[in-house]
Request: fold
Amino acid sequence: MSNAPDGLPPLREVIAAHGLSANKALGQNFLFDLNLTGKIARRAGDLAACDVLEIGPGPGGLTRALLMEGARKVVAVERDARCLPILDDISAAYPGRLQVLHGDALKLDPAAHLDPPVRIVANLPYNVGTELLVNWLTPPSWPPFWQSLTLMFQKEVAERITAPPGSRAYGRLSLLAQWRCDAKIVFEIPPQAFTPPPKVTSAVVHLTALPAPRFPADAAILQEVIARAFNQRRKMLRASLKGMVPNMEQELVAIGLNPQERAEQLTLAQFCTLARHVQALRAA
Ligand code: SAM
Reply:
């Protein structure tokens, strides 16, 4: 088989040569089609002046696309040591532009290796994707170290990130994402595009960090309110939020909320109003 446009062998050949079989426990579903990984990389915007953080490069399908699309530098965090020799070959083809960090993305802090502006692009391992996203959305201060996130998730998770109030998918992820970002689903990818194919359809979500949150609120209190409200999403607010401050039911009425409503009916603006009210009452 002839080489791909980057001069490296096609991914299927690379995998075969290294005897790399997908490990289900590591959420490994690989993309071999460089046209598709190129489409994801382009959706991340102009990368020429950016450092890109990629989580889970695996055999490097998306990594190669990011480099071909002109990323200034890619820092890729991979847990599976079996992928490292393959990634070394990609590094050699792009001298000085690919740095691979071996480790668990949930534990490792890549900040020291990245220069701003930073964009994060990843076909995330399903088992850690949501936790990584929540970490990126809830840093101690805002704006965060990244400008945008272009991430592949199970479609169901992508829908939770972008869901409007009142919908079935609306919840903690929607509110955390939409408070501080513009978030949209950019395209879907069918199971057959992956090797091995997962059971579900995937979707790429693009999130752009807003310069400041959409409505003022203390991040920790807002997160507490949201977590409690959705912990038992079928409960009325007066029950799910009980005990956050004395006389919660009256306090809800005082800011114009119906204590009998459920979390999924509250807008982001209303959650922020509630968080500010809780903060003021606790400070009094
Ligand atoms: N980017 C490749 C692609 O698109 O073909 C592989 C994507 S695969 C869905 C997820 C990758 O994340 C795998 O290579 C897996 O080994 C890696 N991974 C899983 N858990 C990880 C973790 N905690 N930290 C870093 N990488 C992880």
